[in-house]
Design goal:
The protein is of the alpha+beta class and 129 residues long. Helices cover 33% and strands 31% of the residues. It has a domain of 83 residues: hypothetical protein PF0899 fold (2-Layer Sandwich), CATH 3.30.2320.50. The longest helix has 21 residues.
Length: 129
């Protein structure tokens, strides 16, 4: 299951970002609320398997309460003939403007961390008081 190594890598990216921006990683005076990732439909990642792997990986991380939000990215292409952008459907793989023509996939292969929500401890204490 490569989704487990992906979940661990996401947590490592988050840890590095938190350390870079707040200093000290998980001990930076706050907590990780959520992480959003963009997963392309051609990436080879199964969203359900990634969610399960996230649950396992985060329990062994400095961020045991963090949520994972997955944004599925459809496959989009650009026609080499006319330049028209279009979304590729599982059944239709042709340019809507000029029909069957060579095309280039421009979106749908990505795996990227798109948002990290970090709650600073001081902000939490202000809300409680």
């Amino acid at each position: 299951m490569h989704e487990l190594s992906l979940a661990i890598s996401i947590l490592e990216i988050v840890s590095q970002e938190v350390s870079d921006h707040f200093g000290g990683g998980a001990s930076a005076g706050g907590r990780l609320d959520s992480v959003a990732v963009r997963i392309g439909k051609l990436s080879g990642v199964e969203p359900e398997a990634l969610e399960f792997a996230w649950e396992v990986a985060r329990e062994r991380s400095p961020f045991p309460g963090a949520r994972l939000e997955i944004d599925l990215v459809p496959v989009r292409a650009r026609c080499s003939g006319c330049g028209e952008p279009f979304e590729i459907d599982a059944m239709i793989c042709a340019c809507p403007a000029c029909g069957p023509a060579p095309f280039r996939v421009v979106e749908g292969r990505e795996i990227e961390v798109s948002r990290i929500v970090w709650r600073e401890r001081e902000a939490e204490e202000v809300r409680k008081g």
